[in-house]
Amino acid sequence: MHIVIMGCGRVGSTLAHILEDKGHSVAVIDQNPEAFRKLRAGFKGRRVTGFGFDRDVIAEAGIEKASAFVAVSSGDNSNIISARVARETFGVDNVVARIYDPRRAEVYQRLGIPTVATVRWTADQILRRLLPEGAEPLWRDPSGQVVLAEVETGATWVGERVADLEEAARTRVAFLTRMGDALVPRADTVIQDGDIVHVVARADELERINAAVAARTEGDA
Predict the structure, then answer these.
(1) Which end of the chain is more exposed for a tag (fewer CB within 10 A), N or C?
(2) DSSP for 64-130?
(3) What are the structural domain ranges in the chain?
(4) Domain RCK C-terminal: where (predicted)?
(5) CB 61 within 8 A of CB 16
């Protein structure tokens, strides 16, 4: 898919390289043309000089065919404004913005714009939202055998108990992220729309767990 990244700092350039290596087309926007020097010599994506909230600039970056938009410049205001332009003007559903101020981040999470805040950690967080099917776990123990990972529950699990999901997937739910806040659930906690479910499991069990959760249909509810 085509992905537009606003901000060619360490996070933006890291994301651009990882996404290109995964076979995606990438366009990077930055107001400072010198910032593009962070991109490797063989980078094949588009470099666009300008502000990510300028409609002409993001149009030049290919926003109209983009499947995702990422705002990781150094300014909170620029990031959130450009993210809203991408979503509200150009209809890009998959939008992620980096916000340094945690109070602002909570507000934008509640508006439905995912926000994230070390460089590699930020890149991994964004990749998990852009490419959930190929995401790395959130955490691994030193042996690499036990992981903490997100699972995609989908709408069919809304209204169901955490205990039911644990039974179906034969796993342990560590916590939920709800409206930007972490929640340690009880067995009778009901999964709500927008909840992100995090499980702790053996690394070699993740594929089975994701398949078990995804296998649920409307008729099972």
Answers:
(1) C
(2) GG-SEEEE-SS-HHHHHHHHHIIIIIT---EEEEE-S-HHHHHHHHHTT--EE--HHHHHHHHHHHH
(3) 2-122, 134-214
(4) 133-215
(5) no
Q: What is the pTM of this model?
A: 0.56
As a whole number of angstroms, the distance between CA 27 and CA 133 comes to 22
Read off the tokens for 187. Answer: 């067995």
Tens digit of each residue's pLDDT (9 = 90 or more) over 122-166? 666 676 667 655 445 667 765 668 888 888 787 889 999 999 999
| Residue 6 backbone phi and psi in degrees, to 5 | -100, 120
Q: Residue 97: name the closest of 67, 122, 120, 119 by CA.
A: 122
Q: Are 159 and 191 in contact (CB under 8 A)?
A: yes
Return the CATH number of the domain spanning residue range 134-214.
Answer: 3.30.70.1450
Task: State the Cα torsion 48-73-129-57 to the nearest 10°.
Answer: -30
